[in-house]
Every structure is written in C-alpha cells, then in structure tokens.
Amino acid sequence: MIKITVPATTANIGPGFDSLGIALNLYLTLNIYEATEQWLVEHDYQEDMPHDETNFIVKTALSLVPDLMPHRIRVSSDIPLARGLGSSSSALLAGLAMAKALAHLNIDNEELLDHATALEGHPDNVAPALFGSGVSAYYDGSRVYHAPLHLPRNINFVTFIPNYKLMTSNARKALPANLPFKTSTAASAISNTLIAALNVDDFNTARELIEKDLFHETARQHLVPELSTIRDIAHHLDIIGTYLSGAGPTIITIVPKKDTQQLIDALSAANLPGKILQLEPDFQGLSITTERRS
Ligand SMILES: Nc1ncnc2c1ncn2[C@@H]1O[C@H](COP(=O)(O)OP(=O)(O)O)[C@@H](O)[C@H]1O
Ligand SMILES: N[C@@H](CCOP(=O)(O)O)C(=O)O
C-alpha cells in the first residue's frame, strides 16, 4: 500500500496575498490499494463527492499521467472543505503525488510545485503543503520562485472556522481588478517588512504588520463579518495578529503559546457560530510512504 499525507495550509498571513503560506497540522491522507478495472474512490466526506475517475484527486493525477492505471484508493481528511485552509491544494498535491508514485515518475519537487501551481493558479497553499513550514513564493506564469519563511518559535495558530463555506473562486471575485500605484507600493512594503521582522524574530513588529494588509482583506471583509469581531476580542487581550486565512472564511490569530488559552477562552465566551481549533505549524509537508504487507 502507498500512503500519501498532505498538510493543511493557511495562506496570505495578512499582507502576503498569493505569496505567503504556512503548513498546519491538519492532514489529508490518501491510501492507494490494489489495481482495479476502474478507479474506485472511497472516502468519508459527508459531501456528495465522486467515487470514480471524475473525483478531483483522480482527475489531477490523470492531468500528469493520462494513462495512469486505475486503483482503489481511500481519502480521509480533517481539513474542512472550502474554509480557507487549503483543502483543494492538499487534494491536488495528493493527486499529483499519486501519479508520481504509481507511474514511477522521475520528477522532483520543483517540477511538482510548478505543475501544482499551474493548476491552482497561485503558489501560497501548494508550496507550504509540499515543503512544510512557512514559504514565501512567486509564480511568474511558468515557474515558482520560493524561499522558506522564518517562523518564530513558541507560537500557536488559534483558528476560528465558521459554520459556512466560502469557495475560493467566489472570494476572488470580490477582489479589485486594479490597485493604484501608491497603494501597491505600500502593500508590498508591508509584506516585505513583515518577512524581514519574522527573520529576526521581531514578533512585535510582525504582529502589527499582519493586520495592515492592503491587497485583499478590505475587499473580502463583508463576506466574513467575524473578522472584525475576532480582531476586537484579540486586541482587548493585547497579544495579537489576526488575519483572514486564505480566501476565508477561517480567521486565524497568531499567538505566543503562553497566551493561547486566554484567547481561546475569550473567543469561546463570544459564542460565534463555528469551531475553535488550536493549530501548530507542520514541518514535514507532503510525504509518500510505501508499506509492504507480509
Ligand atoms: N479531498 C478532496 N476531494 C475532492 N475534491 C476536493 C477535496 N478537497 C477539496 N476539494 C474540492 O475543493 C473545493 C474547495 O476548494 P476551495 O474553494 O479552494 O477551498 P479551500 O480553501 O478549502 O481550498 C471543494 O469544494 C471540493 O470541490
Ligand atoms: N491567495 C489565495 C489563497 C486561497 O487559499 P484557500 O485556502 O482559501 O484556498 C486567495 O486569497 O485567494
């Protein structure tokens, strides 16, 4: 049996729109069993998700190797769908990794990343899902340039997942078609300075810049009213950097570990409709293991 695991991801991290992302410790697991006549996809999603070759994971695998031999596969995942935690990127990478493993393809992670980004359209989820930890990336339309993002030690990602879904494609429709030159300069300066602050463990500067995004949050905040509520709660505790995870609706506050419980208690008391999780970075990224049955 071949087992593929891919972590969840939180993208943008405030001002790093389509560029910054961090892998988190929720996982999609894909088990690949025997070869079969037709693709057979078992899964435990509550959703109406195809069990045949029209399944997204199989379609992604076939985009890389069109004549891939069908197999019985099983997908299980604790990454919620369409919530801004990179479920589509995890499924997409699982499909590509399956094609690579079954067809014994000789492609490295760079090629895998280019292919995954071409399918996803932006690298900020697929890059950290592939490599683990934090990544800053730029896609020029054919190739991804990327570098690790330094993460402070002793932080948690206090994650509020609303009860409703928001498809990334819909949240992208809310974005402006253009940004004035002055705004773009400021937006990129904020993002650059956030990365520089993280590099020297200056968490005081970093957490302020996390909330100064000029690229996407203002345009999307009407879709996720909880963003301003959670920011207010977090600011009262004076510990905080809160941002819209990916395209939303999940909202994440990066917190020093010591302050985590205090924030979770305050968020729980607000009784917002959704789930609160305490997440941590994943440092491994995508993994493929082969288990031999005796
Ligand atoms: N394991 C999976 N198998 C099949 N399709 C999936 C899987 N995970 C995600 N998807 C597809 O991706 C969609 C969500 O993608 P998207 O809107 O980008 O949100 P997210 O922020 O979760 O990536 C789902 O509605 C579903 O169509
Ligand atoms: N940069 C993208 C990130 C989308 O992430 P997802 O987890 O919501 O798919 C965007 O903001 O649109």
Automatic annotation (TrEMBL):
ATP binds at P80, L81, A82, R83, G84, L85, G86, S87, S88, S89, S90. Pfam families: GHMP_kinases_C, GHMP_kinases_N. Its EC number is 2.7.1.39. InterPro entries: GHMP_kinase_C_dom, GHMP_kinase_C_sf, GHMP_kinase_N_dom, GHMP_knse_ATP-bd_CS, Homoserine_kinase, Ribosomal_Su5_D2-typ_SF, Ribsml_uS5_D2-typ_fold_subgr. Residues 56-132 form the GHMP kinase N-terminal domain. Keywords: Amino-acid biosynthesis, ATP-binding, Cytoplasm, Kinase, Nucleotide-binding, Threonine biosynthesis, Transferase. PROSITE patterns: GHMP_KINASES_ATP. Residues 195-269 form the GHMP kinase C-terminal domain. It is found in: Cytoplasm. One of its GO terms (molecular function) is homoserine kinase activity. It catalyses: L-homoserine + ATP = O-phospho-L-homoserine + ADP + H(+). It is an enzyme of class 2 (transferase). GO terms for biological process: threonine biosynthetic process. GO terms for cellular component: cytoplasm. Pathway: Amino-acid biosynthesis; L-threonine biosynthesis; L-threonine from L-aspartate: step 4/5. The keyword Nucleotide-binding applies. The keyword Acetylation does not apply. Catalyzes the ATP-dependent phosphorylation of L-homoserine to L-homoserine phosphate. Belongs to the GHMP kinase family. Homoserine kinase subfamily. PANTHER family: HOMOSERINE KINASE (PTHR20861:SF1), HOMOSERINE/4-DIPHOSPHOCYTIDYL-2-C-METHYL-D-ERYTHRITOL KINASE (PTHR20861). This is Homoserine kinase. The lineage of its organism: Bacteria, Bacillati, Bacillota, Bacilli, Lactobacillales.
